[in-house]
Amino acid sequence: MPEGMAKRAEAARVRAMFEAAGALAVEAAVLQPAELLLDLYGEDIRARAYVTSDALRGEQMLRPDFTVPVVQMHMQHGAEPARYTYSGEVFRRQEDDGNRANEYLQVGYEIFERDAPHEADAEVFALISSVLRGLPVRAATGDIGILMAAVEGLSTTERRKAALRRHIWRPRRFRALMERFSGRADVPASRVALLAAEDAFAEAGPAIGLRTRHEVEARIAALRKDEAAGPLSQGDVELMEAILAVQETLPNAVEQLSDIAVDMPAIADAVDGLAKRTRALAARGVDVAQLSFEASYGRASMEYYDGFVFGFYAEARADLPPVASGGRYDALTRQLGQGAEIPAVGGVVRPGLMLGLKEGTL
Fold first, then answer.
1. Has 67 been labeled as part of a binding site?
2. Is residue 175 in a domain?
3. 84 is in an annotated binding site
4. Taking residues 276-295, what's their average pLDDT?
């Protein structure tokens, strides 16, 4: 059988398994409105997506994934609770990695349900784990919600918290902000001079760009206010570093994070949720004693996830993208729901990689 046909047959087999689990099969247009995706993720996504222009519809993107259109569809006319599955190509630009295709098949399973979110998390993980059974893969898990709760627990200004929340998915930028807010990093000399200037526009020259003088003045005022705020306490910095350093089996991670929650009560509810999810996973037959948990997992590639995150990777090919991945994205339903929201979690598999592992060609 030709390779393309074999991959489609594998995708159909996986989607049938998801349908057998109660999912409704849905479709999503290959061309998606670029404006919506840019509003959600900013200009960063433009570098990763294929963008084209339509005289009537404006900028369009070749579908970078299915989650956003499926959430839109559900928030407009979906029943509750709901389970969906889909399959088809997604398109993403790749820079230097020859092992990552820019067009590949994706099959997914999504749950929209208000009750028992931890059980829904466990259902998605266990179902995808069963789809991959017998393949040489390892699983990794994390929880972005714990990091978000930790940011909220910091004793600092709301502006600084907002900056840290925005960069949770950019680990290097997040660390740089923590260094600056804690006083560990020197403020650039140019900023020191700008904030000390009695008239910041005295030697500015003619205005260039789209920002008005009023907008620039507001930004300078905000920077001065931030500079006047005291540094993060050493205790807060150490607690955040302790959270980010957690890399254990799931039960041990729950224990470590529970200890940290004694000193940072803001994460207590999120850690309790992690414990409930651990029990739900165990109830579905997942060997949680061997399941890896990393507090930092998912921060570099899963921008719309805000809770449970997971991935399955080829054991002998660390250079390959995940064979399957997913997580919880409650906040995305709020952004797309026009006033409505519903807890949601899902995951996707790559049937091409599954087939390669199954046949030993990877």
1. yes
2. yes
3. no
4. 97
Q: Tally the domains of the chain.
A: 1
Helix (H, G, I), strand (E, B) or coil at 230: coil
Region 80-88: mean pLDDT is: 95
What's the domain range around 224? 158-232
Going by C-alpha positions, the residue among 161, 142, 143 that lies closest to residue 152 is: 161
What's the pTM?
A: 0.88
Q: Kindly state whether residue 121 falls inside one of the protein's structural domains.
A: no
Annotated ligand binding at 92? The verdict is yes
Query: Is residue 249 a known part of a binding site?
Result: no
Is 297 annotated for ligand binding?
no
Name the residue among 361, 362, 349 with its Cα closest to residue 105. 349
Identity of the residue numbered 280:
A
- 63 annotated as a binding-site residue: no
* Residue 194: predicted pLDDT: 64
Inter-residue contact 149 to 266 (CB < 8 Å): yes
Distances (CA, A) of 157 to 139, 151, 230, 242: 37, 11, 9, 21
Q: Which residue has the tokens 């001065």?
A: 224
In a domain, 187, yes or no: yes
Residue 304 marked ligand-binding: yes
The pLDDT value recorded for residue 96 is: 60
Whether 189 is in a domain gets the answer yes
Burial class (CB in 10 A: 0-12, 13-18, 19+), 53: exposed
The structure tokens 């729950």 sit at 254
**210 secondary structure, DSSP code:** S
